[in-house]
Amino acid sequence: MSRSQLGSAHPQPTPTVTVAGGGNLSGSGTLYFAIQARGRGGWTVPSSLVSVAYSAGDRITVTIPSAARAAGDDIRRWDVSASLTNDATTLQVIGSIDGYALDEEALESLPANLVLSEDSHIGLGVTVADEAELPSGVDILNGQIRFVTALAKFYRYNPRSTRAVDGSEVLPAVTGRWDRAFSFSTYVSSTLDPAGGIDRDIRSLGATDILFPSYPADGSPGIPVDFVWFHDPGTSSPLAQGTRFTFSVVAGGQNKANLFSNKLKLTFLGFVNLATGALDKTGDGGIGLMAGVDEEINFVSGKTNLILQKNLPVGSGYLVRLRPQFDLSELRDEIGVSTPVSLYIYPFSQAGSYTEAGAFLGNIVYNEDDRLIVVPGPGLSVQILEGGAIVNSFSFLKNPALQISGFSPNTANQVAAINGNGAAFYRSSSNAVGSSEAIRAVVSTEIGQGQLTVASGDAVVSTGTGSLSVTVAYPSDANGVGTIRADYPDEQLAGVSGKAAFNPPSIKLWVTRSSDGQITEFTESVVAGVNQVFTISSLGDGGVVGTIPSAAAADHGLFVPDTPAVTPSDTGGTLAADTYTVVAGFFHDGNQISRVDHTSPPAIQVLENTVAEVLADQGNIGAPFSLFAGDASTYAPIKGQKLYLKTDVIPNQLYYSTGTTPGAVNPIGDGNNNDYGQPFSTFSGDAATYTPSMANRFYLKTDVNPMLLYYSTGTGEGALTLIGGGGGSSTVNWVGMNQGDWLGIDTNSDWLGVE
Questions:
Q1: For the region Disordered, what residue ranges are annotated (predicted)?
Q2: Whole-model pTM?
Q3: Which of 145, 369, 478, 547 has its CA 20 to 30 A from that of 630?
Q4: Alpha-carbon gap, residue 639 to 378, rounded angstroms
């Protein structure tokens, strides 16, 4: 069954055992040797046994091979055992080799040797009368075990131990300590053996089963501990992509997860195969790396960024390294010094909370934090920024930013999807989105030309040996974090700064020679940063093209370079005396995100206002404009792209909104004429002879009932066109002010009329 465990180690290879002279062994005989890996929670089964014969004056060297440790293993030490027979159940520990350095983080190098040169080194099941008889000097060996008759206890020698000597659990040594042990043998029949298997569920372990790290609780980083959630449900089904993981934190028998929020550091290391120790960090489909791998994050109770980026196969474990970092004073005296803290990792699928609001709101994104906006990530990945939503009637708030990988190259209309638990997924198309998921954005990776700059200023070369130095500023910082162009068609993305990976792989430069209009195209690799300098020394290094191409689409390419700054030189090249201009544009090769679209539908909608705000303004929904008064620079519109009439000035002033933030309203016209800034002008008489004061404006004919609405096409006599065509539908063809005063559209005729 699936379980939470303290690290893991793969089955151990057979050690190399050699015999040579130069030792002090006094007798002769045959011994059988094996090794076991000791993790924090127990031992692996013994390796295959290997036998050697020795004679007086020999020494025996047991070598732990490099293959004994794999990338996904957490081996604190190797215990070396010996027996007089070829029977693993009779093995007894004679010594150990440490897996980690003194800091308990740096790995000791392999292969590593344990040299047995004294008779005391190969003693099996040795009993001593009292602690004074314990080995010392050349007779002592790391990992040696002795039974002390006077105390009726086993003790293991640990040269690194600094525990307080108490005469019972800890005995003194010249260097290190003799720590309490429990048997001469560490034999286990399987890694799940209750007697000490390494893969036992952590919740079944007692205090004496675990190699505890100590932590001074002084605010410094503590010694890390590896945790594994092993997926073995007894079926062929993997643990589904999007499953979340968190930690249980218990001290003194009480749940202390909230107390330890932001006091534990978590690092997802990858998927470990317990049979081989191999560590898989690759993204879904083998593309790139899984999002968040090897990145340290804070533990937050019930809301961590530990999410399966792809299915966890049966037989693999989700490996997370946990490091404490807090001061004892931060625990509010709820936990005392030396109090054990029990932790284990587990999956929880329900991070969202059921809400009845989903029944009438449907799937929506809350207008908070970064609104789960999808921005380009490295390569074929995106990042869904922090935010909250309701999906399938499950609500979540302040979800941390998530990275989704696995997008296919040069493919349009792929999907970044979310569910009600705040998990994010790659989906190949909108048809692949599950019933409990919602599309957050449609993502494309198509090859194509991005947006172009305007032409640079003229650069004049006076000789036939000229060159151009072209400096192009990028919308990126030194770390490759970009600013999306302000004119990007997706209004949720336009101008977003400091969130997206600056991802163009190449830039094209078009150099136009003035004398004959020849255009030469150059393609250069982009180096992420604030700018890049290119030298054009010969037009022959590029290719002549007939025209400068247009962008592949208005939304192709989220980034645009600044207009090139060109410095001409009369030396350094072969450019002819002439005048040159340069245009630049990023080009996408299909291996990065080139377009993102949050348009709803099909994407989930952002609830830009609270329900109370929507209800308060419901009388304006569908109306030609809303009303407001006061300072326009501080007024917050309830919706973008809407008309607003400022009623506390005479004449009233018409504004249009660009968003929902304070001040996101702009006046229409200059406000100095009654015709400017008003929702419409009025007139009476013959429309064919009426002269509008401005073009592209509504004009209401008031001397008929119902009134008629025209729009102006210019400022000449009769430059009015009747909206609705002047006939047809008797229901909404006409525009008037005598009913609901709302403008409406007849869906059959596209005529504008009243409610």
A1: 1-21
A2: 0.62
A3: 369
A4: 33
